[in-house]
Amino acid sequence: MRDLTDLTRPTTPSRAIQERMAAETAERSAAAGPATALQDGAGAPAPLRSRLAEAIERLAPRIVELSHDIHDHPETGYQEHHAVAAVAGLLREHGIEPAVGVHGMDTALRAGIGSGPAGTIAILCEYDALPDIGHGCGHNVMCANSTGAFLALAALEAERPGTLPGRVILQTTPAEENSTAKEILAVRGMLEGIDAAIQTHSYAHDLTHQTWLGVRRLSAAFHGVPAHASSQPFMGRNALDAATLALTGLGLLRQQILPMDRLHAVVADGGRVPNIVPERAALSIMVRSKYPETLKDLVTRVEELLHGAALMTGTGVEITTDPHSNEMPVRDNGPLLAAWVRSQRERGREPLPAGVLPETIAAGTDFGNISQRVPGIHPLIKVTDGPDVALHTREMARAAGSATGDRAAVDGAYGLAAVALDWLHDAGLRRAVRADFEASGGVVDVEGFWQEGRPDQ
């Protein structure tokens, strides 16, 4: 019951749903059994994985130091100058000269090691933070995972040249939170010559795959006619009314969308003063869906709704989108995930299989744009003490800089390096990875996706 004597404070959300979801997750986990792992004899030889574990242990203090450095200097998208300098400096300490500012992006870095016929696998790296919250998505841990994995593989190659029968690329990808930088980088050639791509994500569970929704960002600017709000309101056309109707329409539309779809919006501009009929109002909108084709359909419905709001109010509306495709749903590769599961079991972790965690805990990432172009994985690694710490919260930011985050930084570095080694050393695994990718749809034309019609047209 709310205290009606103090209505200045918001109500506290009930924790009953978190408790219920935790219980259901435990039940599903017990019923599902363990996640599929790469079998002994597949992937890289066991002695080589042992050498990798030793390399990771030698690097562990620097991996943790990098995670803390990034955590203590949070920078938002495209402003990650401290972070890119920290990664570049660490690479140079180990004799690797990176290229900084690649593909026309100041805070994007690229480095490569190894050569050979096996092909090229990319380890992607994020390090941007959230405004006000800091590293509430744990990108500092993810940066340490990727950089540490790359340095460990470089150490193996330096000890015994030829250890890597192919090439490994470390590619940092800025601005995951406030942009779709991976799409921009992909269009500019980041994936040319890349055969597979891998990256972790911080989380409150060890998890092979969670639902990553596709995202389309829209801006809707309503244009009306200003008028004196008291003496001649009838001469005005209220742009804020149009925005209000659009928000109401979005709320009603939620009743008729798929359970995993999401719609959210904020008023970016609502007029200046109350005694003038607002001439302009603007909404910033995010549309999310689980599949590319359902995302495209839902975006069309939202655009129709925005036009309807303009018609009802006699206003005009301009709908704009980012020139680059926003986040596509992530398509995880089964054989690569099996390699990840084995690596994490070697670190004493037990990643949950897909379908155990409720799908309602879903977000988006521009790694989806990569996974639609090349085989890839985006497994989640536990950085928290408890299972109910959510992404994009101050609690997650604290966890990402804690001892549990430090352990995840080291374990994830081993995991990514082990997956890369498995892929490079096992031609059968590479064939299985490619076959799984083709069976799940093959290469998708992400860049041209929004130029095509809806699936029902």
Automatic annotation (TrEMBL):
Gene3D superfamilies: 3.30.70.360, Zn peptidases. Residues 222-306 form the Peptidase M20 dimerisation domain. GO terms for cellular component: cytoplasm. SUPFAM superfamilies: Bacterial exopeptidase dimerisation domain, Zn-dependent exopeptidases. GO terms for molecular function: dipeptidase activity; para-aminobenzoyl-glutamate hydrolase activity. Residues 1-44 are annotated as: Disordered. It holds the Pfam family M20_dimer. GO terms for biological process: folic acid catabolic process. Residues 17-27 have a biased composition (Basic and acidic residues). InterPro entries: Amidohydrolase, Bact_exopeptidase_dim_dom, Peptidase_M20, Peptidase_M20/M20A_hydrolases, Peptidase_M20_dimer, Xaa-Arg_dipeptidase. Residues 28-37 have a biased composition (Low complexity). NCBIfam families: amidohydrolases. Belongs to the peptidase M20A family. This is Peptidase M20 domain-containing protein 2. The lineage of its organism: Bacteria, Bacillati, Actinomycetota, Actinomycetes, Actinomycetales.
